[in-house]
Amino acid sequence: MRWSNRGRSPGLDHALVSLTRAASYSRLWLLIAAGLAAAGNKRARRAAGRGVVAIAIASAVANGPAKLLVRRRRPFSRSRPALVRMPRSTSFPSGHTASAFAFATAACREHPRLAPALVPLAGAVAYSRVYTGVHYPSDVAAGAAMGVACGVIAVRLPPPAASPRPHDDLA
Fold first, then answer.
1. How far apart are the first and last CA of the chain?
2. How high is the pLDDT of residue 171?
């Protein structure tokens, strides 16, 4: 955290605050999922769907029982205040990070060509949580591990049943 605090600069502050805000409520990942779904090919749509399922699992686990079990207070520093509004929830694990790695893991397992973009983006979201002062590094490490596990679980779930096409009933 000290290393992160020493590296603060106005340009980096703006970029990482913007990234952490974009990832709030999984907006960033849902936007990417919408883009993948709109891409039209089956593999991209499957990646988007699995990614969204992974987010749902990770959010439920990280923001529910995991935070209730550990109850760690958020970091506090008078000399380096947080760059974003301090969340009211407990610190451990990072829900932003869990969702980021859950989406990236599930989407990349379905569509490996997405990995060079999604994995570093998930890592940047994780780092942004420490950089902005709202998480300890161990919070994001636990969130990343939880997210990867939830992404793997989402990929192993049976695929949703194919819905019949509207014109199938007319035949």
1. 64
2. 46
